[in-house]
């Protein structure tokens, strides 16, 4: 329901001059309220935690963008650079930025003057009229200008909402880039670890096969019972049975790299990484928590969504108040085309209308409550995003510290096993040990190497996860 304001019109012989709109209370009120906005309760996104872990060091105020370059592999750098440009997820997120910008322009344009032109030709007849007019033609050329000033903050909140949604989609592009980079790096490291494990397992299988052949010979000579032979055969078969799965996993990682870099697996020419290709980066000193909150793309996106939903609450509240539309129409109308643009054919209208909600069945209030609930959801999502980010950094710091110790111990164990294997070979040459002892020592050394490979792979993966958790989006790096 609503009420109509007065309309002032004029034409040939009209008595209301063009400045007569200033006498209209509706239009005058609109001008006064155009700069007003209904205040809404501000939102607080919460405080920033002071640290990631107790006693953990922090330094710097800027997040690292191209964090994957710390591994020192140019092939990996090129693959990531291609992926963050052509990966479907990044392309899709970039398209949504353009869509959000277009929607913002549409929302902004709705509160700008709307101009339309309306040429019209009509044939009319009123034979039953009091003067018995016959059919005649009306040629008309007029235009209309209408303007909704967006009172009570309707325009301001629409502008804020549109700008915040664009910022949200831009941050989502940054998050998509980092997701692609993280996926490629993790797949490359995992594939390198699997390739090293495959090589080690094949060497272990070869040693186990030689030991099995030796035991078969001793069993055939009646020197040993059959049980050691069966036990060694089971061990050899178990090692061989694990190889197909490892090969399939390595292929799956290459397929993941292909998809993340934006190509089909059959067209992918990358992959086949080795652990030796990667340099273990220096210890990470994380940026201060405030820098993480200010620059990590998923947090930036969540915060922008809070701003958008807060502005949407303002729009819902502004809809509870009256709205005003100002309009002006002017042009020419004549029964003959050759007199259409003569001064006597001119016509114009100035009007202002006010629409005030009186009863709408609770629709507008329901919209306001829905907007408030959506805002509450956005705030909780933002808080959850921040907590998850801090958890990822805290986990990464602990894991990286533990990985250093694990790599050190596994390398020491491999060195010890290597020394035992060397000693066994020397003793065999001197006749102080049998060949069975040599092969057993070799298998133990290979298994220690396998543990060292797994520890090194995990160290690289955890380091990558920590760097990704502390990363910002550096568009220049892409």
UniProtKB/TrEMBL annotation:
GO terms for cellular component: plasma membrane. GO terms for molecular function: efflux transmembrane transporter activity. It is found in: Cell membrane. Pfam families: OEP. Coiled coil: none annotated. The keyword Transmembrane helix does not apply. It comes from the Bacteria. It is a lipid-anchor. Keywords: Lipoprotein, Membrane, Palmitate, Transmembrane, Transmembrane beta strand. The keyword Transmembrane applies. Belongs to the outer membrane factor (OMF) (TC 1.B.17) family. This is Efflux transporter outer membrane subunit. It comes from Acidiphilium acidophilum (Thiobacillus acidophilus). The lineage of its organism: Bacteria, Pseudomonadati, Pseudomonadota, Alphaproteobacteria, Acetobacterales.
């Amino acid at each position: 329901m609503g009420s109509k304001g007065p309309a002032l019109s004029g034409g040939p012989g009209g008595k209301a001059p063009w400045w007569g709109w200033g006498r209209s209370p509706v239009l005058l009120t609109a001008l006064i309220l155009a700069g007003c906005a209904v205040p809404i309760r501000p939102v607080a996104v919460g405080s920033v935690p002071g640290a990631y872990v107790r006693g953990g060091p922090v330094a710097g105020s800027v997040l690292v963008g191209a964090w994957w370059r710390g591994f020192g592999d140019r092939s990996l750098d090129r693959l990531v650079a291609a992926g963050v440009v052509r990966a479907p997820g990044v392309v899709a997120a970039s398209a949504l930025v353009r869509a959000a910008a277009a929607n913002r322009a549409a929302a902004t344009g709705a509160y700008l003057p709307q101009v339309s032109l309306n040429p019209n030709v009509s044939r009319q007849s009123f034979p039953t009229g009091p003067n018995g007019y016959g059919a005649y033609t009306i040629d008309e050329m007029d235009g209309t200008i209408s303007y909704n000033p967006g009172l009570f903050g309707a325009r301001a909140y629409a502008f804020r909402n549109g700008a915040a949604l664009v910022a949200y989609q831009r941050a989502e592009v940054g998050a998509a880039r980092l997701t692609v980079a993280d996926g490629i790096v993790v797949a490359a490291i995992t594939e390198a670890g699997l390739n090293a494990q495959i090589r080690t397992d094949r060497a272990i299988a070869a040693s186990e096969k030689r030991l099995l052949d030796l035991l078969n010979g001793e069993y055939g000579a009646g020197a040993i019972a059959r049980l050691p032979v069966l036990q060694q055969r089971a061990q050899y078969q178990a090692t061989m049975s694990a190889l197909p799965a490892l090969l399939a996993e390595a292929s799956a990682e290459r397929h993941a790299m292909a998809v993340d870099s934006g190509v089909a697996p059959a067209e992918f020419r990358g992959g086949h990484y080795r652990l030796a290709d990667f340099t273990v980066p220096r210890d990470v000193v994380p940026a201060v928590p405030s820098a993480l909150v200010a620059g990590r793309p998923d947090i930036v996106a969540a915060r922008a969504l809070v701003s958008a939903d807060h502005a949407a609450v303002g729009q819902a509240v502004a809809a509870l108040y009256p709205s005003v539309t100002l309009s002006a129409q002017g042009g020419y109308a004549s029964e003959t085309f050759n007199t259409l643009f003569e001064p006597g054919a001119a016509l114009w209208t100035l009007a202002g209308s006010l629409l005030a909600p009186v009863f709408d069945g609770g629709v507008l209030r329901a919209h306001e409550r829905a907007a408030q609930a959506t805002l509450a959801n956005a705030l909780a999502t933002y808080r959850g995003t921040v907590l998850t980010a801090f958890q990822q950094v805290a986990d990464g710091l602990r894991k990286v510290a533990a990985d250093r110790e694990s790599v050190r111990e596994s390398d020491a164990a491999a060195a010890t096993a290597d020394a035992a294997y060397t000693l066994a070979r020397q003793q065999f040459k001197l006749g102080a040990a049998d060949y069975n002892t040599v092969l057993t020592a070799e298998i133990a050394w290979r298994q220690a190497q396998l543990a060292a490979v797994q520890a090194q792979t995990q160290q690289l993966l955890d380091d990558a996860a920590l760097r990704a958790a502390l990363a910002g989006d550096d568009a220049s790096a892409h």
